Structure formats: structure tokens, C-alpha cells
Amino acid sequence: MRNSNRHISCQHFAACGRRGFTLIELLVVIAVIALLMGILLPTLASARRTAQAAKELVGVKQLGTAYTLYAQDNKSALLPGYLRGSWARADRRKFMVYDNPNNASEESRLTGSVIRPYPWRLMPYMNYAYPSVIVDKALLATAQSASDGKKDGRAFHRVMARHPSFGLNSTYVGGDAHRGAYYAPSLARWGAFYVTRLDQVIFPSRLMVFASSRGVLRDSGGQKVPGYHRLDGPWRATPTSNSVPAFVKWNAPSRFDADLPTTTYGHLDFRHDGKTVAVSFDTHAERLSLEQMGDMTRWANKATDRDWHPR
Asked: 236 vs 91, 122, 230, 248, CA distance in Å?
């Protein structure tokens, strides 16, 4: 009888030990988890943004170094920002550009619109490291999966050419055939408004070469992507071909709005907590605000003040 009571008592306490949570206890646990998530998620998001900015700082510095190396290998001549169409024709040999460092054959040679922007011409100095040219993984995946069904299979090359993560200050650095460069009447009207040689740069620590950019992916229905090959400064040259451009000032809000057209701020992208990543001729990289990027002394070699423009 005594043993039976002991057995019943043990069962009773075992049952008590398996008692479930009450509704109030569950609500308290859920509330604590929600509170922790509310605290941690913004921190994690901020950490991801910081990591992405650090990654772009490394990438833009590599690009700035590659740009300088090109000039050193070409007797101080800077890489043109955007070529004239005649310079990129297949029957011309002015720029011999290949998509494969181990295959200098006609099959591997790139010509035409693919090489007019800077990326493929600078690629040898980047060791063909595509993730350093297009830092954003989703955009790189889009480029690598691009296919237009044509036999030449050049859709990938076009996306790489048009949408690197960093735009070149091509109007004022190296020259841009769609912004009045290499055209005698334009130079007669505005003077040498762009620098063409490394030894012409007056303030290497100030003159910006590349910065974070954004553009619209062709044939995407207006999809904006974090990358474009060209930047247009606060005083931008109007798009032109074989004619003299005008220089017009940004007409944009003082606060960056990503919903506005990518041309509003000359394709600049302030995607790092309101700042863009930029590199100057001395290859130092930094994060700059819209206010800082509105200073023309960062854009033009001859600029003497914030609001300078070709006259």
C-alpha cells in the first residue's frame, strides 16, 4: 500500500513537470522576440550597408588604380571616357579590345558600341575581374545571364559595358564623344574643358575619376540598376554628336531622391546612407555627400570655385 502511494505521487509530480505554457507566458515570449528583432534588424541592415560600402570602396580604388596604370602605359594619355564611333569600328586598329586575356583572336575581339564606354577597354588592367567592375551581385547575375538569341552572343558584353558599378567622369576626364570631346569646333568654343593627360592634372587629390552610379537597364521597361558607365557633373554638357554642346546646371532637389530619373543627378547614386563612393586621381577613395559632389572643383581640372563651368 505504501509502495502504491509512492507510485501515484511520482506520477502526479511528473504530470506537473510537463505543464505547458500559459497564454500570458506565450504572449510575453512573443513580445520579447519581437522586441529583440526590432532592435537587431536595423543593426543587421546597417551592418550590411556598411559592408557593401566597404566593398565598393575597395572596388572603386582598384578601378582608379587601373585608370592610372593605363595612363602610365600610354605615355600619360588618359583612357577616353566614350569613344567616337569611327574609333571603335572593326576595320580600325586604334583600340584592340578583347574579352579573353588568353585569346587575342578575331573571335575574341570586341568592336563597335561594346567598346565605346570605358569598361572593356580598362578590363585588362582589372585582370578581367567582373565582380570588381559590377559589384552588385544581382546586377552581375543579370549581365551573365543576358542573352539576345543572336549568334554573336554579345548581350553580356553590352550589359558589362553600359552598367559598371562606377561611372566615369568622362565629360571632364579623358573625354566623351557624346559630350563634345574630340570635336574641333567644340574645343574652339569652350577650350580644353577636359583633361587628356595624367601630367595635366593640377590637383590629383581633388579631381574625381569614378563614383557610384545608376542607370536604366535597356529593354527592361525602365528598371533602374546600380550601375552606369558615365557621370554628368553639376554643370553637364548636353548630349551631342559632331556638334558643340551647351553646359547646363543640374535642376534637382538638394536632397537625393532615388525615385527621380537617373539623369537628375547625372547618374550619380547616393546608395550608401546618402553618400556616393568616389575615387580621385591620387587613388584615394572616400564616401561623399550630394552637397560635396555638387562642387565643380571635384569634377573639372580647371575649376576655380564650386560653381565654375566652361565659358
From this structure: 33, 24, 11, 6
